[in-house]
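USER: My hope is that you can spare some time for a protein that puzzles me. I am handing you a single protein, as its sequence and its fold in token form. Walk me, if you will, through where the backbone shape changes along the chain. The protein I mean follows directly.
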Amino acid sequence: MERRTFLKVIAGLSAMAIQSWRSSVGASQSQGMGKPPASGSQTRVFLAGINRGAPEEAMKSAVRAAAQAATDFSWLSKGDAVFIKPSLNSGNPYPATTSPIAIGAMVELLREKGARRVIVGDMSGIEHVKLSPKGVAGSSRRLMESCGMAQTVLAAVAEVHFFEEAGWGAFYEDVPAVGSHWKSGLMMPNILKEVEHIILMPRCGRHVLAGSTLGLKAAVGYWRTDTRLEYHRDASTFQEKTAEGNTVETLRKKQRLVLSAADKILTTYGPDKGNVFQPETGLVIASESVVAHDMVSLAWLLENRRNIPPSEKDWLNDPYNSQLIVNSANKYYVVSKLGGWGPAFASEKLTRNDINTIWDDRVLNRAYQVFGGMPKVILEAGNNAVPENLRNRLIEMVTLSA
């Protein structure tokens, strides 16, 4: 049964779902910051604008502008290998998955800067791909081909890599920061040992279990099935483990840049289907900090959700609004697929939280703690296509009031 079909079955339990939805709308379930987070350092995030309907070259130019504003590439020596981590949860086109045009532009830029080897890879979600000690069901390769990403990568003279194809043993244990909610180390793909640098290229969208799927959430694609099982089974700290999963040594030492093409936003449902909204001015968002990037990316998601009809945001079209659906989908769909019915019945409750502002998000709130404080975001234009009123609106949304 596909995820969307399963959710429709759950939604069919109308009396329970409506009651859950009413209670969730009436009062936020956010486990908020409690007290203001520790203040971190000033961190720059760059925006490059793209006019709606602009040609493909405009996206390429915006990606290059945002990337080169966010980093000087001094970390890249001639002959280095770079891994690009996209979001490939399904075979659906951008914005359900990362923009192929944006990835192609990044590959070309890295080549110009001296990269010897550029690799683009991921392992798709449990609905489509499952790796076990006995073998593999499904194919991330086929999904990357379906969404057009693989063709663009190969045309740009880069490699494609799919973690499940290397087998169960092609992973190593990496340890998150001290004090995390993870019981075990995270199983990360061996290919990351072969590269000097990592560039993360997520997309900006809603997520049926997490509320949003941005940069921090994209780390799930690295993890072997047993790590994903712990993540979903021990669901009371699902949001916190999302942030903590980005503190493993590999990512702290090698991740150089986080860049999202966001001229199209998946404003409902997610991660692979939903309402696609295309604002008059789209954005490319780039920063050396995944936390600062996600603050701006979440603000951009919320800003665009304001512009879709209220009917698109009811619990039928946007199931994250229902606590019943969120918990049931995690327990009886995701955990059962990852580990079987025993772990599913024993799994913890996944509690959603209303995300009306970026300050409501438990993932970001935990990220501020494990990454040394809340960044003071300095939001700058990477090209001349970002309207000043838009930049000011986002500055307001990512600045904590005194």
The CA atoms of residues 198 and 335 lie 29 Å apart. Confidence is low (pLDDT under 50) at residues 13-33.
